[in-house]
């Protein structure tokens, strides 16, 4: 088994990450850190903190000079962080000692590493938003098209009362819509620069430290947190929480899809399915199963990251390393789950015949609640419930539809609508249409 399925030649098609995978590579990390060093020098030059000529030279070189991540490995292993080796290699590559001395002026490794991470996370969230909008749009189409299509509602794995497939799609999508709504606030509360120096005091920057951080944030189009956050991992934890909610919502949809495609139910059909090495009849729900696995991984990784948010003193190497080990995997789990959900929702189709058969094939017992409420119009509610419960037991014992027994027992009651699924879906069609309307304009 590969150490990471996302980078594996064997498993990458089972757990695809799309363009997000490129953001969590050594080359992407090094490139982002160089851009941060260049932006820092540019702003410091504009503020007169370092020579303007040196600032311009460093900024231009940060966008042009490539550094081999492999060449930084030894220094990273020794120092426990990439930045010292990167700064040394960058200064050497500049071949201009008079300018190179101003690289990384006053910053600490964590400032560069955390800010570079935020540059990549900004791109990552943009990619997720695109796929999230696609998935919501496709769920909205399903909700609109099938708003009135009755199907069994199920609780504890048992038939409950009729709902509609459109409402099911809406219920899958509602938490995703909440997540999309939360994105602007998440970006404001997460995508921060870090520029606080060795122990978080900004002492090396002098009295203009706060001004420098603000200008640094503007240069990179990130937020100025207006404080030090070296040992406060709140932004990371907030992001992890959002990603875990995303995976949980997608995992719920995938779990339902697996159940709805299983033999004996077959109420939905997937656009693609997997085969067995020995059983020709198998059409396995591979993509939903992958999403469920990814959701479980995300939930576990989030627990590790929340624990790693407990830092000691002004910087905690062990907690920081734990974040490096787990955050990329959590991000890629979310990206892969959403990548597959986008495909599934574009090709998922309901099976109306199977839904209708399920509604009528259980002796009409799914309508027991509606029947009890109809009877409660003439009897106290507890008595009505008890009477219908007795009829349900009789229906099972005699293998006779509840509708036949009810009509015989209560010939004066109007019962046609009670046993018509189209009349017993409550607010499900309205919920489906409301969700469809909310997702109508999410993609151009």
TrEMBL record:
Keywords: Isomerase. The keyword Ribosomal protein does not apply. Pfam families: Lyase_1. Residues 363-436 form the Adenylosuccinate lyase C-terminal domain. PROSITE patterns: FUMARATE_LYASES. InterPro entries: AdenyloSucc_lyase_C, Fumarate_lyase_CS, Fumarate_lyase_fam, Fumarate_lyase_N, L-Aspartase-like. GO terms for molecular function: isomerase activity; lyase activity. The keyword Thylakoid does not apply. Belongs to the class-II fumarase/aspartase family. This is 3-carboxy-cis,cis-muconate cycloisomerase. It comes from Thalassovita litoralis. The lineage of its organism: Bacteria, Pseudomonadati, Pseudomonadota, Alphaproteobacteria, Rhodobacterales.
């Amino acid at each position: 088994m590969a150490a990471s399925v996302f980078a594996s030649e064997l498993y990458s098609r089972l757990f695809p990450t799309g363009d997000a995978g490129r953001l969590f590579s050594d080359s992407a990390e090094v490139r982002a850190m160089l851009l941060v060093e260049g932006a820092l020098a540019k702003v410091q030059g504009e503020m007169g903190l370092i020579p303007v000529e040196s600032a311009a030279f460093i900024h231009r070189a940060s966008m042009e000079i490539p550094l081999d991540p492999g060449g930084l490995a030894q220094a990273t292993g020794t120092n426990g962080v990439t930045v010292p080796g990167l700064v040394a290699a960058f200064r050497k590559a500049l071949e201009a000692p008079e300018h190179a001395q101003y690289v990384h002026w006053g910053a600490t490794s964590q400032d560069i590493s955390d800010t570079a991470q935020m540059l990549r996370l900004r791109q990552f969230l943009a990619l997720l938003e695109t796929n999230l909008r696609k998935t919501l749009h496709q769920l909205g189409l399903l909700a609109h098209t099938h708003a009135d299509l009755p199907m069994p509602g199920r609780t504890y794995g048992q038939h409950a009362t009729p709902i509609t497939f459109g409402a099911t799609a809406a219920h899958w999508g509602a938490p995703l819509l909440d997540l999309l709504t939360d994105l602007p606030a998440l970006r404001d509360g997460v995508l921060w620069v870090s520029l606080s120096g060795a122990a978080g005091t900004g002492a090396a920057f002098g009295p203009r430290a706060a001004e420098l951080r603000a200008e640094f944030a503007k240069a990179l189009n990130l937020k100025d947190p207006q404080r030090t956050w070296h040992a406060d991992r709140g932004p990371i934890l907030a992001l992890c929480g959002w990603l875990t909610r995303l995976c949980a919502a997608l995992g719920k949809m995938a779990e339902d899809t697996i159940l709805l495609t299983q033999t004996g139910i077959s109420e939905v059909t997937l656009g693609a399915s997997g085969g067995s090495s020995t059983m020709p009849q198998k059409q396995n729900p591979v993509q939903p199963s992958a999403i469920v696995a990814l959701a479980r991984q995300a939930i576990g990784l989030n627990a590790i990251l929340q624990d790693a948010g407990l830092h000691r003193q002004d910087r905690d190497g062990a907690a920081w390393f734990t974040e490096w080990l787990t955050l990329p995997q959590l991000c890629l789990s979310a990206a892969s789950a959403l990548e597959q959900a986008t495909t599934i929702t574009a090709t998922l189709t309901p099976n109306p015949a199977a839904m209708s058969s399920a509604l009528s094939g259980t002796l009409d017992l799914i309508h027991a609640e509606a029947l009890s409420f109809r009877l409660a119009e003439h009897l106290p509610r507890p008595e009505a419930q008890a009477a219908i419960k007795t009829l349900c037991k009789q229906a099972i014992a005699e293998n006779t539809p509840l509708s036949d027994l009810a009509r015989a027992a209560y010939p004066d009651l109007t019962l046609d609508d009670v046993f018509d699924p189209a009349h017993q879906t409550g607010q499900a069609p309205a919920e489906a249409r409301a969700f469809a309307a909310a997702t109508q304009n999410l993609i151009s």
